[in-house]
Amino acid sequence: MDSVMYALPENIRNKAFVIASYYIKLNKGADILKKASALAVGQTIGTWIPIPGITEEIREKYMGKVVSVFDVPALDLSTQVDTEDREYIIQIAYPSVNFGGDFPLLLTSLLGNDASTSAQVKLLDIEFPADYVENFSGPQYGSGGIRKLTGVSERPLLLNMIKPCTGLTPEEGAKIFYETALGGVDFIKDDELFGNPAYSKPWNRVKRYKQAAQAAYEKTGKKALYFVNVTSGAGEILDNVKRAEDAGADGIMLNFAAVGYSVLKQVAEVSRVPVLGHGAGTGMYYEGTASGMSSPLAAGKLARLAGADIVMINTPYGGYPLQYQKYIQTISQLTLPWYELKPSMPSIGGGVHPGMVEKYVREAGKDIVLAAGGAVQGHPRGAKAGARAMRQAIEIVMEGQDFAEAAREKEELSEALKCWSYVKD
User: Fold this and answer.
1) At a CB cut-off of 8 Å and minimum separation 6, what does 152 contact?
2) Annotated catalytic sites, by residue?
3) Which one of 157, 229, 358, 365 has the minimum C-beta count within 10 Å?
4) Among residues 392, 401, 154, which one has the least CA distance to residue 384?
5) What is the pTM of this model?
6) Coil vs helix vs strand at 107
7) Which CATH superfamily is domain 9-133 in?
C-alpha cells in the first residue's frame, strides 16, 4: 500500500489538508481505487500520463491522498453485485498549501480539472481544518449583529423585495418602498434581477429609498433598513459598494453564485454594513446528480465562509423541487457552531406568506429572516396591508396562540388568508 497515496482519516483530520467528499458512479467493472487515486493525483500534481520532475518530496507535500471509499449500497461480497453500475462515496484529502485562502483555486483543485482526471463527480461536502478556516473572516455581523442592528431580538425578521423586479426608476421604486415600510417590515431589498442598470444606479436608489424610509419612520416610528443590490461586473462592484455606502445604504446585497465566492469574500471584508448573499443561480452548481456540488455546500457553507451575514436560500414550498433534507441541512451549515465563525442568518424565500409562518418557525426556528415577496406586494389592499398581515402572523406564532382562531381578529391577516391558506403541518 502506497502510504503517500493513501491515508487513514485519523492521520489527516485537523492537519493541513482539506477533505472533499464526492459521489461517483462507475460501471461494474471499473476499479474504484484506481479512479480515486487518479482523481487525487490529477487534481494536485499530476496529468494523465507520468511526467519527469515529480519527486517523492513533491508527492508527500503537494499530492492528494485517498482517505475513504464507501460503496453505496454497502457491498462487501462480489456475489452482492447485481447491477451494471456501481455507486461510491469517496474522500480525498488535498494539501491546503496548494490553494491557501483562495476560493477560485480551492474550487478548481477540488472540482475543476475534469479534462485531466476524467472523473465525473459531485462534490458533497468539504471538511476544513481550523487553521485553514482562519484564512477567512466569515460574517462580520452574523445573526447577533443583525439582531443588534434591527433592535429585534425575539422574533423572525421580516423582509420584502421591491416588485416589479426590474424597470423601476429610483423615484418609482421609492413610492413602493414607502408603502411597504408603512406596514412594519424590518428590511427592504432589491430583487436579485435588479442590480446596476443604467436607469437606476445603486447609489441613486439608496438616496431615494432612504428618503422614503425616513418619511415612513416619521409616521410609524419603525425604520425599514434597505439592502441595495450591487451585483455587477467585477470591475464595478467595489465602486458600487463604496458609492452605495457613502449614500447611506443600510446593507449590501450580492448574487454570490453569479459573481463568485471570492467576490463575496472581498465585499464582506471591505463593507462597513452587513452583506446579504443571495443564492440566485446556485442551482447551476447543484442541480446535476453526478456533477457540481451539493446544495448545502453551494448555498450554505461556502456562503458563510465567504462572509455573508444573511443568506437567501430556497425552500421546498415555493414551487422549486428542493428536497426537505437539503433545505434543513443548508440552514444547519449557516447556523450551527463552526470554529470561530459567526453564524449567518438564513433568509427564507419561496412560498413565504402569512399562512406559512408557523411552519417555517417550527422547522427553522426564530433566528431567520422571512422574505415575503408576492404576499406583501400582492395583498388585496396593497403592500402596507401585506406587510401588516405578515407581522400579525409572526406575532401570533411567537405568542403561541392558536393561529386560526387569533387570525380571525386581525383584519389584514384574515384577508391575506383568503388568498394564501394557513398551513398547519
Assistant:
1) 186
2) 163, 278
3) 365
4) 392
5) 0.95
6) helix
7) RuBisCO large subunit, N-terminal domain (3.30.70.150)
